[in-house]
Amino acid sequence: MKKIATLTALIALSATAALAEPSCTPAAEGAAAPVWEAVKAFEEEGGVVKAFKINGGDCYEIYGSLDGTNMEVFFDPTTGEELERIDA
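and the corresponding structure tokens:
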């Protein structure tokens, strides 16, 4: 019984780590890359933006789809560089 509980806890921890979002350094006032640049970059690839937000880690986050796949795309707010994509 103890082995099952331990195994369950390990699976839960690994799932949480896999879903972790990137963290960004907040841009200094006036130094943030325009939000529209992140949106434009995703749309130029053929993506469709469904929603946009600044996540709890201060990154720009786009919810959208590309080639029929729903995804979350994270961008650095200072440089506008894409950081990560997660299939959703």
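(Above: one complete record from the training split.) DSSP finds two helices and four strands in the chain.
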